[in-house]
Amino acid sequence: MNGSAQSPHSVLEIQLRRGPAGLGFNIVGGVDQQYVMNDSGIYVAKIKENGAAALDGRLQEGDKILAINGCKLENLCHSAAVELFRSAGEEVTLHIQQRPPHSSNGPLGSRSDGDSSSSVPSLALLGVFVAAVAITAFVLYRRPGGFRRHTPF
């Protein structure tokens, strides 16, 4: 799996009306800032609470935006995509490829919901603990008297 292909049957057209806070979502991606491995598409990074997209409810974080007002977002750098969104007007039509519910593909560095993702923080915590014990042992060993217990007379 290369992270770029999602099924074509999940394409959705969404019409949003720009509100006081804009369209209510942030985007990532582009040819200069790939968000998904081997895919230079534009993706929804964050849905802003109470924004136009959140109130509509259909746009989700991780969805790929294929077009805005009929302009395809293929092979654009991030700044060019941002400019298209800024100049899109009050009524905006988006063509969205919805994120598959349980895809092994996804943003670079993403983890699945499997057991392996929960072990990463545990291993990091274990590493910090072992390092702390090692540093403490080293400091005690280097001290005059080392590990010997001093008994007061």
Q: What this model shows, in words?
A:
With 153 residues, this protein is an alpha+beta fold. The protein has a domain of 81 residues: Pdz3 Domain. The protein contains 3 helices and 6 strands, in the order E-E-E-H-E-E-H-E-H. A hairpin with a 2-residue loop joins strand 4 and strand 5. The relative contact order is 0.18. One of its GO terms (biological process) is cell-cell adhesion. InterPro entries: PDZ, PDZ_sf, Synaptic_Scaffolding_LAP-MAGUK. Keywords: Membrane, Mitochondrion, Mitochondrion outer membrane, Transmembrane, Transmembrane helix. One of its GO terms (cellular component) is basolateral plasma membrane.
Strand residue content: 15-25%
Low-confidence stretches: 1-6, 106-120
Q: What is the CATH superfamily classification of the domain at 11-56 and 63-97?
A: PDZ domain
* CATH architecture classification of the domain at 11-56 and 63-97: Roll
Report helical residue fraction.
25-40%
Number of E-state strands? 6
Give helix and strand order, one letter per element, not per position. EEEHEEHEH
Name the shape in a single word: elongated
Describe the sheet with the most strands: 6 strands, antiparallel
CATH-assigned fold name of the domain at 11-56 and 63-97: Pdz3 Domain
CATH class of the domain at 11-56 and 63-97: Mainly Beta
InterPro entries: PDZ, PDZ_sf, Synaptic_Scaffolding_LAP-MAGUK
Region (Disordered): 96-115
Main location: mitochondrion
Transmembrane segments: 120-141
Question: How would the blueprint of this fold be written?
Answer:
Elements: E1 11-17, E2 25-29, E3 42-47, H1 52-56, E4 64-68, E5 71-72, H2 78-86, E6 91-97, H3 115-142
Antiparallel strand pairs: 1-6, 2-3, 3-4, 4-5, 4-6
